[in-house]
Description:
The protein is α+β, with helices and mostly antiparallel strands. The chain is built from 9 helices and 15 strands. It has helices at residues 6-10, 18-32, 41-57, 60-69, 94-102, 128-133, 274-279, 338-351, 360-373; strands spanning 120-126, 135-146, 162-163, 172-177, 180-185, 194-195, 208-219, 228-231, 247-253, 260-262, 265-273, 281-287, 290-296, 305-308, 324-331. The strands form 6 sheets. It has a 4-stranded mixed beta sheet. A 3-stranded mixed beta sheet has the order 1-9-8. The termini are far apart.
Amino acid sequence: MSQKDFYETLGVSKGASEDEIKKAYRKLAMKYHPDRNPDNKEAEEKFKEIQKAYAILSDPQQKAQYDQFGHAGVDPNQMGGGFGGGFGGAGFDFGDIFSQMFGGAGGGASRERAFQGADLRYDLHITLEEAAAGLKKHITIPTHEECDVCHGSGAKAGTSPETCSTCRGSGTINVRQAIFQLQQTCPNCHGSGKIIKDPCLKCRGAGQVKTSKTLEVAIPAGIDNGQAIRLSGQGEPGTRGAPAGDLLVYIFIRKHAIFERDGRDLHCELPISFTVAALGGEVEVPTLNGKAKMTIPPGTQNGKQLRLRGKGVVSLRGSAQGDLYCHISVETPLNLTDRQKEILMEFEKISTGMDRPQNPHQRSFMDKLRDLFD
């Protein structure tokens, strides 16, 4: 049965340095450690794999044998040296690494492990005007606080937690599997090192109760859809004195009735009459800060794009202001009176056969059509 390459297991290249190998191992060991993945067999097997890989690649002599002969070079059944009677000959100490990651020594000294709280997410929906101008919003989120009855101990008033008899307060037990000796979370106290025989009636032994808190979120001008604001220390509480996680407030901008946003720029459709399109004129244009005047050049065609500088959204990281692009929509009049029809018929009659091109798109189309059939 083929074995997975040790370098591949740690996610490093064959030419990786000692420091790169150690960093990769620490990252994976943190991710798949049994304390962080209780009752997860897949994570447990993965943890064993990365331990084995690091045992070889962290030892210069065994690494050289592996680089030259592959798995056969470090297999005790095929080579005289192998693991050297377990990990002791590999020249490193797992306990030292775990103590840096999990706050304890590798042995059986009594300790309670502390973990930083997880980051939390909150989705906040705002208007385009609010995103452009910036503002402060108050949000209410669920959280936990220390139980005021047991003061965080989890034990009923008048009692206190007892040291776990299974792990003797360490929170872990040693399990030997083949040549490996692993530390696993104590199944009796679930890693706390303490047993609560009479739990607090209010928090039911958790030491914390559910509550809510209101936070102020400062939303900067120019923030875009999907961007997040980080509130440090407002996430899930840490355990046993460890710091809390962060709260990530994701911003979602509601669809606007007039404008569409493209980065700092805004786009809108601007309907005008065919008279203004033909003769030109000045029209009012909506902006996020009221109305503005725009000059329509004579002969403006449907679909033409006109720009108002500085009427867009301010840059999130700077003072640069975007522009407003108006897409012209020439409207055809409806419900014409007899007099209006008469005038338009007269206009069409006097326009036919004129030397000056007054309908450039139509003339171009007819020329192409004539070339096609000729």
